[in-house]
């Protein structure tokens, strides 16, 4: 379990392609301190397992195997040697939950749409897959490349976040430009609420959906209308 508070900017130093998988070597002296084989480290929001630890004159790096499923469903497949990545170790039992509950299980990918610079922060607009739109709400939490962020504005196919100078300086979002892919993990609490309300796995957004008896009862009693049902049922 992670919190979405990035500990350091690491670097991809080697990629070995293994057919239906790849082995990454990632330099990260902070996250590898005290690490051992089998530990978990989040790389751009993807929970990976440490295979080996390698010491050299430039510091410690770790290797991790990335299966085809992960390469296909995340932006890790677009990384090259030299790419910078956000790194975070799992939260220690009893530690502070500085961001929000992050599993390291990517739900999909978006892309940087545009960036608007303000005097002390920057507004970044990110595309949102339709199947994830119901889980993203204004002032809710979302994980972007492993960074816990607060949603400023939530549209059907996009959302915006406001980045402070620290986030811009210490994470990959400080350098990503329009068109660059990002990993997205929505708030897991929204998924449990949806399940408890009886939703099935039909596509969200414009696709057909089936609502549970609880949601239907709320709507029939006038507590939900068709325009607000999606937001209220999945917030």
Automatic annotation (TrEMBL):
Record key words, sorted: Repeat, Riboflavin biosynthesis, Transferase
The enzyme's E.C. designation: 2.5.1.9
Keyword Transferase found: yes
Transferase listed as a keyword: yes
Catalytic activity: 2 6,7-dimethyl-8-(1-D-ribityl)lumazine + H(+) = 5-amino-6-(D-ribitylamino)uracil + riboflavin
InterPro entries given in the database record: ATP_synth_asu-like_sf (IPR023366), Lumazine-bd (IPR001783), Lumazine-bd_dom (IPR026017), Riboflavin_synthase-like_b-brl (IPR017938)
Pathway connected to this protein: Cofactor biosynthesis; riboflavin biosynthesis; riboflavin from 2-hydroxy-3-oxobutyl phosphate and 5-amino-6-(D-ribitylamino)uracil: step 2/2
UniProt domain Lumazine-binding: residue ranges: 1-100, 101-197
Region Disordered, residue ranges: 201-235
CDD domains: Riboflavin_synthase_like (cd00402)
Record-linked SUPFAM superfamilies: Riboflavin synthase domain-like (SSF63380)
Residue spans of the Lumazine-binding repeats: 1-100, 101-197
PANTHER family for the chain: RIBOFLAVIN SYNTHASE, RIBOFLAVIN SYNTHASE ALPHA CHAIN
Primary role: Catalyzes the dismutation of two molecules of 6,7-dimethyl-8-ribityllumazine, resulting in the formation of riboflavin and 5-amino-6-(D-ribitylamino)uracil.
Name of this protein: Riboflavin synthase
Species per Swiss-Prot/TrEMBL record: Streptomyces mordarskii
Lineage, highest ranks first: Bacteria, Bacillati, Actinomycetota, Actinomycetes, Kitasatosporales
């Amino acid at each position: 379990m992670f919190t979405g508070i990035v500990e350091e900017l690491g670097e991809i130093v080697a990629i070995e392609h293994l057919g239906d998988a790849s082995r990454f070597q990632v330099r990260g002296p902070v996250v590898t301190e005290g690490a051992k084989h089998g530990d978990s480290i989040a790389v751009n929001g993807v929970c990976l397992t440490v295979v080996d630890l390698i010491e050299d004159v430039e510091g410690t790096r770790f290797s991790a195997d990335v299966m085809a499923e992960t390469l296909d469903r995340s932006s890790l497949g677009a990384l090259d040697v030299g790419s910078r990545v956000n790194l975070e170790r799992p939260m220690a039992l009893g530690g502070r939950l500085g961001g929000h509950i992050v599993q390291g299980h990517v739900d999909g990918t978006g892309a940087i749409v545009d960036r608007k610079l303000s005097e002390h922060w920057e507004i970044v607009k990110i595309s949102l897959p339709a199947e994830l739109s119901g889980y993203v709400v204004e002032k809710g939490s979302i994980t972007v490349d492993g960074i816990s962020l607060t949603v400023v504005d939530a549209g059907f196919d996009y959302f915006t976040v406001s980045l402070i100078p620290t986030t811009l300086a210490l994470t990959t979002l400080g350098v990503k430009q329009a068109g660059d892919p990002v990993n997205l993990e929505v708030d897991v609490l929204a998924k449990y609420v949806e399940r408890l309300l009886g939703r099935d796995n039909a596509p969200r957004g414009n696709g057909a959906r089936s609502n549970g008896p609880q949601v239907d009862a709320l709507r029939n009693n006038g507590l939900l209308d068709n325009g607000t049902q999606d937001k209220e049922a999945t917030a």
